[in-house]
Amino acid sequence: MPEVIVRQDGPVLRISLNRPKRRNALNYTTIDLILDALELAANDDDCRVVVIAGEGNGFCSGDDISGMGQPTGARWKGRKAGEAVLPQQALIKTLRALPKPVVVSIHGYALGMGLDMALACDLRICTETSELGDPRAERALYASTGITYQLPRLIGYGRALGMMLLAERISGKEAERIGLVYRAVPDDELTTAVEAIVSKLSTAATKSIWVIKKQMSEQLDLDYERAASHSVATRGSYTLEDTEEGIKAFFEKRKPQFTGR
Fold first, then answer.
1. What is the DSSP letter of 26?
2. What is the model's pLDDT at position 6?
3. pLDDT of residue 1
């Protein structure tokens, strides 16, 4: 079986980590496979939403330390001598910039780079009993893959610092309470909750969602005046074909039929 299962399900691209014996830990091969799938989704107009999940007992336990070292895949060749190569950062950047909404389904655990990857997705749905955290401090490892940027912006500096320094693991229920995930549900309701969101996004105005996603990311550290100017500039930079349909459907009191463009 492949280490990453990729399946196109109509407008939905499903990516599933498939290394259950390694607790779905990421190595450079799996990162390459995920990036390949995300790049296909980015350039496929028929793809409207991406779902990332994990096989087995949990979502992702982090980096597979035994499978790291210097990446050898084709995409990493041609780098300058001595240039640092962090495929993990490439994965985080790709997820954050993907012009399609990304939903992550978390069960069991999301730890270290697994949590990093989840935080880079747009909507995080987990079970109430999931464990989320970053154990790198207790292993004397660097946190160089993005979590020190993402985590404090989601839950605040103080709580994020405490989680990192103490290698604290929190439950999915607590993660929902502090805003780390969008929703936490009972274990047997995870698939239903994820699919309800995916179903809505798969017929939504995909390009509009991308522009809003881009605005939020780029305005995160701006003051209000600059953010307002950025929004005006953004409005003038994109043409949304679905806007006309959205307005027409509103006046005709019907559900819009968006193309995603």
1. B
2. 98
3. 79
DSSP secondary structure string, 50-70? EEEEESTT-SB--B-GGG-SS
Inside any domain, residue 257: no
Q: Which residues of 128-145 are buried (b: 16+ CB within 10 A; e: fewer)?
A: bebbbbbbbeeeeeebeb
Q: Do residues 123 and 91 share a domain?
A: yes
Strand pairing partners for 106? Answer: 126
For residue 94, tell me if it sits in a domain: yes
Rounded CA gap, 179 and 40, in Å?
A: 31
The answer to whether the beta carbons of residues 160 and 152 sit under 8 Å apart is: yes
Q: How far is CA 87 from the centre of its chain?
A: 15
Domain span at 244: 206-251
* pTM for the full predicted model: 0.92
- Structural domain tally of the chain? 2
Q: In this structure, is residue 145 part of a structural domain?
A: yes
Q: Mean pLDDT in each 10-residue stretch from start to end of the chain (261 residues)?
A: 94 97 93 96 96 97 76 65 68 96 98 97 98 93 88 96 96 98 98 98 95 90 87 78 87 90 87
CB atoms within 10 A of CB 30: 23
Place of tokens 């096989």: 55
- 115 and 92 assigned to the same domain: yes
